[in-house]
Amino acid sequence: MNERDALRALTADLPHAGDDAAVVDGTAITTDMLHERTDFPSRTTRYTAGWRAVGASLSDVAAMGAAASAAVAVYADAAFDREELSRFVAGAVDVCEAVDAEYVGGDLDEHVEFTTATTAIGDVTEAGSVTRGGARPGDALCVTGEWGRSAAALRLFERGGEDDIERANELFRFTPRVADGLALAGTATAMMDSSDGLARSCHQLAEASDVGIEIERDAVPVHPAVEAVAEDSAERFELAAHFGEDFELLCAVSEAEIAGVREGCPSGLTRIGTVVEEPDGEAGPRVLADGDPLPDRGFTHGDE
Amino acid sequence: MNERDALRALTADLPHAGDDAAVVDGTAITTDMLHERTDFPSRTTRYTAGWRAVGASLSDVAAMGAAASAAVAVYADAAFDREELSRFVAGAVDVCEAVDAEYVGGDLDEHVEFTTATTAIGDVTEAGSVTRGGARPGDALCVTGEWGRSAAALRLFERGGEDDIERANELFRFTPRVADGLALAGTATAMMDSSDGLARSCHQLAEASDVGIEIERDAVPVHPAVEAVAEDSAERFELAAHFGEDFELLCAVSEAEIAGVREGCPSGLTRIGTVVEEPDGEAGPRVLADGDPLPDRGFTHGDE
Question: For residue A78, which of A40, A169, A285, B185 sits 20 to 30 Å off, Cα-Cα?
Answer without folding.
Answer: A169
